UniProtKB/TrEMBL annotation:
Extent of the signal sequence: 1-18
Pfam families named in the record: Lipase_3
Protein's name in the database: Fungal lipase-type domain-containing protein
Limits of the Fungal lipase-type domain: 79-216
CDD domains, sorted: Lipase_3
BP GO terms, sorted: lipid metabolic process
Length: 287
């Protein structure tokens, strides 16, 4: 009750919205990669986002970790999208949040600790993805690479960003949606030394509870600036705020209720993102 009253006071004083709204160009990109993050949930993407094509899909049977590699010839871009939680095995991964040393391929930080489940899941398909991405970038010439994912996929995207860069792959940008905390302060500093904040977009939505877990009391922190879609629905550039790092008045200042995986977590950029069937980002209509 007290937290809700505090939020009302902040709202009325204008403090909660002291952060600047994003530009139309930034919001356009947030919308674009929402589509790819959502499309990763589909086992068969009939109409990939933005006129792109599916190059390859990845699926590790032991962890059920999945990702999709897209190619957009118009934008001259390669996009790797990691799927969010969509199965009981994925939930096992989510709840395996013991903090362990960073060992993902290509990384080099002896003091860094990360989410055990995310690292195990990423490592199960890392070699396949790195090889495929390198091949695609080599064959395409001057294409750029963007990494994206929602929920569990956002946690994997974070580790993948570090892993790819450490493996000699240039990452143009990373866009995550509903990203859980996935490492300690050393990890935050290390990833920040690899990719500039201007190239990492950690998007949150309304009172989505997943960005608020695992709790900071367990030593987990967020990397990069937060871009908060502040309305429950009908968001635009005018209602999406650049909150900077470690804001307490944007997503973290909201009460997510009894379940962190709430309606705000399942919808981003005014569309459903966690649909395995009838996925709107793949051209299907929701029933």
């Amino acid at each position: 009750m007290l937290s809700r009253l505090a939020n009302i006071v902040l709202f009325l004083s204008g403090t909660a919205f002291a952060q600047p709204a994003v530009s139309e160009d930034v919001y356009k990109n947030i919308l674009r990669y929402t589509g790819f993050a959502a499309a990763a949930y589909s086992d068969s993407c009939a109409t990939p986002p933005s006129g792109s094509t599916v190059v390859k899909t990845f699926n590790d049977g032991s962890t059920d970790t999945q990702a999709t590699l897209f190619r957009d010839d118009t934008a001259k871009e390669i996009i790797i999208a990691f799927r969010g939680s969509s199965s009981p095995k994925d939930l096992d991964t989510d709840f395996e949040f013991k903090s362990v040393p960073l060992t993902a391929v290509g990384t080099s930080c002896q003091s860094c600790k990360v989410h055990s489940g995310f690292q195990t899941a990423y490592s199960s398909i890392a070699s396949q993805i790195i090889s495929a991405v390198k091949d695609e970038l080599s064959s395409s010439g001057y294409y750029t690479l963007t990494i994206t994912g929602h929920s569990l996929g956002a946690g994997l995207s974070s580790i993948a960003t570090s892993s790819f860069i450490g493996s000699g792959i240039k990452v143009a940008s990373t866009y995550t949606y509903g990203e859980p905390r996935n490492g300690d302060s050393a990890w935050v500093s290390y990833l920040g030394s690899q990719i500039p904040d201007d190239n990492y977009f950690r998007v949150t939505h309304y009172n989505d509870g997943v960005p608020q877990i695992p709790p900071t009391v367990l030593g987990f922190e967020h990397h990069g600036p937060e871009y908060w879609q502040s309305k429950k629905s009908g968001n635009s550039a005018a209602t999406t705020y650049n909150c900077g790092a470690n804001s307490t008045s944007c997503n973290a200042g909201q009460d997510y209720g009894d379940n962190p995986i709430n309606g705000a977590h399942l919808t981003y950029s005014n569309t459903v993102v966690a649909a395995s069937l009838h996925n709107p980002s793949c051209g299907y209509s929701l029933l």
